What does this fold into?
Amino acid sequence: MRQVFKRPESLKLVPFRFCPGCGHSLIHRIIAECIDNLGIREKVIGIAPVGCAVFAYDYFNFDVIEVAHGRPPAAATGLKRVMPDRIIFSYQGDGDLAAIGTAEIIHAANRGENLTVFFVNNATYGMTGGQMAPTTLSGQKTTTTPKGRDIKTSGYPLRVSELLATIEGVSFITRTSVDSIKNLMMTKKAVEKAFRYQIEGKGFSLVEILSPCPTDWGISTEESIDWMRSEMMPVFPLGTLKDKFSS
It folds into this structure.
């Protein structure tokens, strides 16, 4: 009998504890599959901050370090510089990377650090109560914007990938999604490419992944997929924003 499915070696044999409909479990599996395909599991070190990303050490079957909120790029820089043979990646949410860690991500990118960053954008602070994040859409209701985000007082949704793509030290920036089989496959290609660029010493790469959060959005799993397509993607369009080495 031909085997058509197996658990990636880079995932532990434990159940995910994410909310129903959350995209983190899909993204974890994609990262694990890419690490297995590249044969780099024994060389990988993941870095997770506070937030839903903090559970990474429970699921990935390789070394994972937890650091303070917003600080993964700084910790990753230190690790990569003292252990340049290791493959270092950070796994960060939008509140972590785009608010608390804005300085860290910008300056790591500006230095062109040879790192891989996975940026999960669900337009909310997921674990801490569904507050407004930098990526929260205009008019979007959260626990801290019950009447909807008001751009006059809270500003506009922050397009991190577009900002980072202007930085000279960046090699690869792309935005993908987990809303469909097609986009899951595109996400997997982007994740593997970002790892390959680090392996080849090509510098800083970031993959932004749009992900559903039905619990904090207050809608069903099915509705969350539709909402991603109708509301999030017009503000955060999918596609590659920068690739220094594309042929």
